[in-house]
Amino acid sequence: MTEAKNILEVRNLSIHFGSGDDLLKAVDDISFTIGHGETVAVVGESGSGKSISALALTKLAPRAAKYAGGEIIFGGQNMLSLSDPELRKIRGSQISYIFQEPMVSFNPVFTIGWQIEEALKLHRKGIDRKKEVNRLLDLVHLPVRLAPSYPHQMSGGQLQRCMIAMALACSPELLVADEPTTALDVTVQREILNLLAELSEKVGLSVLMITHNFGIVGDLADRVYVMQKGKVVEEGSTEQILYKPQHEYTKQLMAAVPRLHPAKD
Ligand SMILES: Nc1ncnc2c1ncn2[C@@H]1O[C@H](COP(=O)(O)OP(=O)(O)O)[C@@H](O)[C@H]1O
Ligand SMILES: [Mg+2]
C-alpha cells in the first residue's frame, strides 16, 4: 500500500449557522489539501471563515454550526462521520491546535512544567515525563529552568512557546495554528514564526497556518489559500500568490498589510 500524498483533504466543506432569512454560510463549499510536512496558509480578513474551517477539522466548530456538506479526509477516514470518542482520540494526539491567546490555554494555578506533563500523561503512557518536558522545552528554545514557572511569570512570547511545546507533547502529525502571533509584538512574532518553520523541518510536522496577515505568509508557507466570505477565492504556491496575485481581493489584502520583508522584485 502506498502512503497517501496528503495528510489532509478537505472536499467541498460547507458549514452554516442559522436558517431561512438568517442563514449564514460561514464556510461555503471550500476544498483544500495539506501534504506531508507541508506548511499551508489560509489567509483572509476577519469573519471570512478561517477559524470555523480550522475547528471543523476535528469537528470542534461551535455547537450552533451545522455541517452542511462535504468531507474531511484524515488518516483515510472522514472526520465528519466519526464518533465523539474517535474524534477525541485524534484531537491533541494527531491534530493539535495553538491559538492566538496562549494565556487562555494555561491554568493560572499550575506551573507550565506540570501542565506539559499532564498533556503527556493523557497521550503518552510509560515515558519519562520529566525528561520529556525538558526535551520539549528545549525543542521550543526555552530554558529548562523555566519549567517551575507559573503562566503569569512568563512573557507572551515565552507562553506561546510553551503552548507550542504542549501542542507537540503528543507528537501530532498536523499542527493547526490559528493566528498564533497576532497578540505578540513584531519581533516576538518573527521569533515564533521562525520556530514553527524550524519545527516543521525538524519534526516533519505538517502545519496549517491561519492568519489575516499576508506579511507572515511569505517566509513560512509552501502554499496559500485565500478566503473571502466563506469561499476560497484563490489558491497557489506562496510565490505565485505573493508576486502574481490574480484575484482583486488578494491584491487588496496584500496592499492593506505592511509586509515584514518588502517585495524582492
Ligand atoms: N457561534 C457562532 N454563531 C453564529 N455565527 C458564528 C459563530 N461563530 C462564528 N460565526 C460566524 O461565522 C463566520 C466565520 O467566522 P470565523 O471562522 O471565526 O472567521 P475568521 O476566523 O476568518 O475571522 C463569521 O461571519 C462569524 O460571525
Ligand atoms: Mg479567526
Quick structural summary:
It is built from ten helices and ten strands. It is of the alpha/beta class and 265 residues long. The strands form two sheets. A six-stranded mixed sheet has the order 6-7-8-3-9-10, sandwiched between helices.
Describe the structure in your own words.
The protein is of the alpha/beta class. Helix content is 34%, strand content 26%. It is built from 10 helices and 10 strands. The strands form 2 sheets. The protein has a 6-stranded mixed beta sheet, with helices on both faces. Strands 2-1-4-5 form a 4-stranded antiparallel beta sheet, covered by helices on one side. The radius of gyration is 19 Å and the shape is globular. The N and C termini lie far apart (44 Å). Magnesium ion binds at residues 50-51, 178. Residues 50-51, 178 line the site of magnesium ion.
Key features of this structure:
single chain; about 260 residues; alpha/beta; 4-stranded antiparallel sheet; 10 helices; 10 strands; about 25% strand; globular; binds adenosine-5'-diphosphate; binds magnesium ion
Number of strands: 10
Bound molecules: adenosine-5'-diphosphate, magnesium ion
Q: Give the radius of gyration.
A: 19 Å
Unreliable parts: none
| Proportion in helices | 25-40%
- Major β-sheet annotation: 6 strands, mixed
Write down the secondary-structure element order.
EEEHEEHEHHHHEHEHEEHH
Class computed from helices, strands and strand pairing: alpha/beta
* Percent range for β-strand residues: 25-35%
Q: Please list the strands of the largest sheet in the order they lie side by side.
A: 6-7-8-3-9-10
Number of helices: 10
What is the rounded distance between the termini? 44 Å
Globular, elongated, flat, extended or rod-shaped: what is the shape? globular
